Amino acid sequence: MSTNERIWEVFRQEDEGDPMVHAGNVNAPDEELAMHYAREFYGRRGESHRLWIVARDAVTELDDPDLLKPPFDRSHKKPGGYIIKHKLEAAKQRAASEAGE
Amino acid sequence: MTDLDAATRDALAELLLAVADDEFVIGFWDSEWTGIAPMLEEDVATSSIAQDEIGHARALYELLAEVTDDDADRIAYGREPDAYRHAALLNHRRGDWAFSVARRYLYETADAVRLATLARSSHEPLAQLAGKMRREETYHLLHAEAWLRRLADGPPDVRDRLADALRQLWTDAQQLFAPLGGEELLVTAGILPQPMAAMHAAWTARVRPAVEPIAGQLPDASPAADGRMARSDDFRWLHGEFTMVAAGDEATARW
Q1: Has this prediction a pTM greater than 0.80?
Q2: Chain B residues with CB within 8 Å of chain A CB
Q3: ipTM above 0.85, yes or no
């Protein structure tokens, strides 16, 4: 049995409309048994509304640090990368003085 | 239960006991795989299915206890081996994996026919319970079918083991539809919506075409009047295992 086992990643949804969350994985030789095992491991206590069972080798993986963690400063791509506190204060003061006119 | 005459009530008790003992004994046999199934995932699945079967047996024993004014635990654990009424199919010990798969397949297909019938029973508590059991047994059957196909499509030695097991179990599997003493009364009352013989015909029509390509031509075999009566040494051993705790002396037991 162990020669042709594959790993299947299992995602579960607790209720309709909830996000699919990674639950874990199971070993199984084929899709049919993967479904049974996913049900036993991640659904038998009534805790799941829906399961997605995906062969791990069907997943396209990206973990290249050059692409995901580029070496240069990327703070301008995050909201926190802008220091806007003083701009906000200036804008508030301007608005207050305009209202007072 | 007061609306049933004594003879019909006895017949209902006989029916409930037969189905309950089948579920109870196959549950205990398959629980013998816990820890040693072919892979971890299958270990969990098999154990969980075995547990489901014992759960079904418990519900049936409780129903029976209401009919006979008895106690479910006493019925389950308080009888001598010869008083059990499971079909001859369940007299065999666990065997190898192919043997257990062959037995589960024969059992689950028969159980599906039986539950479809009992879900239409005029005895309302039985109809309701059968309906609930069917929802779980659907999955059990899918699991058994997946393994049957898998072993049938496996290497020659695997296929041979499966074929041997199917041939060895075929006659005893018929006994799941062994006639009951009070069967006519049950059919008349609608408690059993169709006779065992009709269920047997439906099961055979489905199962023969599925297993003969694997096992070769199987002999003509019919349910026998004593198909639920004979008890094997294998079963006497299992009985000793599953009654061990109930029979133990609480005063001296150490946990």
Answers
A1: yes
A2: 38-42, 44-45, 48, 139, 142-143, 146, 150
A3: no
